[in-house]
Amino acid sequence: MVYRFGSHIPLPGVDINEVNRFITDQENANSGILGLLNSFTGGSFKRASVFALGIMPYISASIVVQLMGMAVPYIQKLQKEGESGRNKVNQITRWLTIGICLVQAPAYLTLVTSQILPYDPASSYAIYVIPPTNFWFWFPSTVILITGTIFAMWMGEKITDKGIGNGISILIMVGILADLPKAIFNAFEVDPSNGIFFLIEMLGLILVIAMCIMIVAAVRKVPVQYVRRAQTSSSSYMRSVTDSVRSYIPLKVNAAGVMPIIFAQAIMFLPGTLANYFLDDTSSVKQFFAKMADPFTWEYNLIFGLLIIIFTYFYTAITIPVNQMAEDLKRNGGIIPGIRPGKETANFLDEILSKITLPGAILLTLLAVLPAIVKLLGVEQSLAMFFGGTSMLIMVGVILDTVQQINTYLLNHRYDGLMTSGRTSRDI
């Protein structure tokens, strides 16, 4: 509630009533990378609110630190030091978040005053009470944008500590969900008389959610057998008893999550963004890059899909340490039936991972390009964005994780109640 309330508090010198009137009339900043950032912040991005940067600088810092953990020995050492190491890594991530905000806050103010909410003294929209060319607009706004991100990061960490689920992910999900009711209303408002098509849209949305659940939850179970030794003694002999416990390693079909889509989107939008600043409007190169930045063109989706498949393999390879898994199995007395411990186990896990990554990458690509497909079929653009892509995967992933943690909490609560009171689960 606090996060959604903050998304409607404007920066100093900005008239929120004029902002809302301008957005309603112009309906700008609804496509490309601006539309993506706006959906992640729940509309804060185009309203010039105190939470305009949202939680994304923290997510960017977390990704950078995660990638550094594969190349920087100091970060690798911290990641292996348990709770104290994780606390130090979190502290590094927080400071890096502030550093990213110091770059993004002035860049955002430049963007918002030139494109999203352009400043024009002769315009009928009196958006800026304080002219954005004034120092007393830039300096307080920069400080407040950075403070807004740090406050959102603090809220996310508090939700993680005192609530259920990952607080940062929940804040992102809340921002994305904020636009869903409006998108559904707009889709119905386009042609209220065509109720059958609207029902087909809702059914299609449910099927897409089911597909997302399948992609997020699908695993390939690799059987593992752990050997346990125990000694029994009697007055006449002592002998060794060997027992075995069966388990499995769950290898996710989509181990990379939404990261391939995020990386691919960043690459797709970057040339068009640079072309906007450095090329003339009549340039054919700029027109080409503008088409490549439109998520509803076939050229964009073709290259976008190829990039997702490439990044899925790349991110899976660097985040799933098969050699480390093989060593941990060997150290703990675990073996995969029919496979020798050590190098052969690592090769076996790598082979399975390669085989299941391909269908996972294809399904992820299909989900990413689905909004463009359904828009061609007549679905309204704002609702089409919920038919797949990063937004839907994040929502489904966060909700599944939260439901799982709630079930774990309830199970532990019932177990503790049974142990302390002797009552059955039905009584509880």
Automatic annotation (TrEMBL):
UniProt entry tagged with the keyword Protein transport: yes
Keyword annotations of the record: Cell membrane, Membrane, Protein transport, Translocation, Transmembrane, Transmembrane helix, Transport
Stated family: Belongs to the SecY/SEC61-alpha family.
Species of origin: Chishuiella changwenlii
SUPFAM superfamilies: Preprotein translocase SecY subunit
HAMAP family: SecY
One Pfam entry name: SecY
Name of the protein this chain belongs to: Protein translocase subunit SecY
Membrane topology recorded in Swiss-Prot or TrEMBL: Multi-pass membrane protein
Known partners and oligomeric status: Component of the Sec protein translocase complex. Heterotrimer consisting of SecY, SecE and SecG subunits. The heterotrimers can form oligomers, although 1 heterotrimer is thought to be able to translocate proteins. Interacts with the ribosome. Interacts with SecDF, and other proteins may be involved. Interacts with SecA.
PROSITE patterns reported in the protein's UniProt record: SECY_1, SECY_2
Residue ranges crossing the lipid bilayer per the database entry: 50-75, 95-117, 137-156, 163-184, 196-219, 256-278, 298-322, 356-377, 383-403
Function field: The central subunit of the protein translocation channel SecYEG. Consists of two halves formed by TMs 1-5 and 6-10. These two domains form a lateral gate at the front which open onto the bilayer between TMs 2 and 7, and are clamped together by SecE at the back. The channel is closed by both a pore ring composed of hydrophobic SecY resides and a short helix (helix 2A) on the extracellular side of the membrane which forms a plug. The plug probably moves laterally to allow the channel to open. The ring and the pore may move independently.
Entry's localization field: Cell membrane; Membrane
